Amino acid sequence: MPEEIFIPSKPAANASPAVPDSEAVLPLVNATETASTPDATQTPTQETTKAVLPTPEVSQNWLDSIKQSSQSGFSEPEWAASIVHGRSRHEPLYHARTHNIPVALLHFRSYTPSLLDLFVHFASHAACSLGIPISRPAKLPTQRSLWTVPRSPFVHKKAQENFERRVHKRLVKAWDADPTVVERWVRYLEKNAMPGVGMRIVRWERAPVGVGEKVYIEARKGVRERVVTDKERMKRLGEQIVQKELAPTQTVATTVATSS
Amino acid sequence: MLFVNARVLRDIKARKGVLDNELLRRAYLYVARDQRQPPQIRHQAQLQLNTFGRYTRPTTVKNRCVETGRGRGIMSEFGLCRTVFRLKARNHELPGVHKASW
């Protein structure tokens, strides 16, 4: 196996946004996803196998844009070709942000920091392959719950034992990528989710001006016209009780008092 | 699987009763605490509230250990009493829980 590392010359300083064509290929995918529209995943019978490494069928515009946007001057295939022992041994290539527009926020939580770091590493490599500029993983403060419990089933309070549970958290932020690319990344991570690691994703999308009204109209279609809350129900019942049970007893009492 | 005990059965009965009667109890309480109502009506509402049986009152509900039915020393996050919690934690049966050391 050759030991030489391929170092290409740095490209021009013009950075173009990392917007891929719709025919983008996912290099690390298992052999069940196609490269066409997102709806294709609903029909598993017609999938074709895809190569693990990026093939020449990938659109050249997208590759060029990644090359120009990367900080180190490499494109992702070039950087990948320079790896000798495999991606698990190296940090991913962090693409440069072109427009600084946040697109997604990934929260990861786990009881085991090693599993967590492994999955975050996996997610970062997937983002690198798709050309999504991401941040380095940020370590949010660890939550620690402590329980102190007497050892004996009966008395002996002075002999106790401490148990704890630590929740480790990581945060990865993504910028600039096209919504279809982010969707692909997210679905890939959900499909290859690691047991023991929880993931929460916040996404932002750019919408045209005037979208608010359309969203409101759509939302109103799904809402019942008059929703009765529990508090309202309680108050109504209270009023009924007063009218039917309690007030009649009072009027009877007053008439009896006046007559006698 | 839930441990079944006479006390556990009583607790289940209480929980069901509370669920069924919660709205009614709240309505009576609302009337009894309503400043706008005349005092006689408020007093009547409070008396009505006192007539409810023990299996409708939320104070009767008590967390019990799911494994042993013990009423004291319960940890709400696991639904277990302290001894069972300790046994399970030591056997690594509770996810993420381990002996603390710092």
UniProtKB/TrEMBL annotation, chain A:
GO terms for cellular component: ribonucleoprotein complex; ribosome. The keyword Phosphoprotein does not apply. Belongs to the universal ribosomal protein uS10 family. Keywords: Ribonucleoprotein, Ribosomal protein. GO terms for molecular function: structural constituent of ribosome. It comes from Neolentinus lepideus HHB14362 ss-1. Residues 1-20 are annotated as: Disordered. Residues 105-202 form the Small ribosomal subunit protein uS10 domain. Involved in mitochondrial genome encoded proteins translation. Involved in the binding of tRNA to the ribosomes. Part of the mitochondrial small ribosomal subunit. The keyword Ribonucleoprotein applies. Gene3D superfamilies: Ribosomal protein S10 domain (3.30.70.600). GO terms for biological process: translation. This is Small ribosomal subunit protein uS10m.
UniProtKB/TrEMBL annotation, chain B:
SUPFAM superfamilies: Glucocorticoid receptor-like (DNA-binding domain). InterPro entries: Ribosomal_uS14, Ribosomal_uS14_CS. GO terms for biological process: translation. Belongs to the universal ribosomal protein uS14 family. The keyword Coiled coil does not apply. GO terms for cellular component: mitochondrial small ribosomal subunit. This is Glucocorticoid receptor-like (DNA-binding domain). GO terms for molecular function: DNA binding; structural constituent of ribosome. PROSITE patterns: RIBOSOMAL_S14 (PS00527). Keywords: DNA-binding, Receptor, Ribonucleoprotein, Ribosomal protein. The lineage of its organism: Eukaryota, Fungi, Dikarya, Basidiomycota, Agaricomycotina.
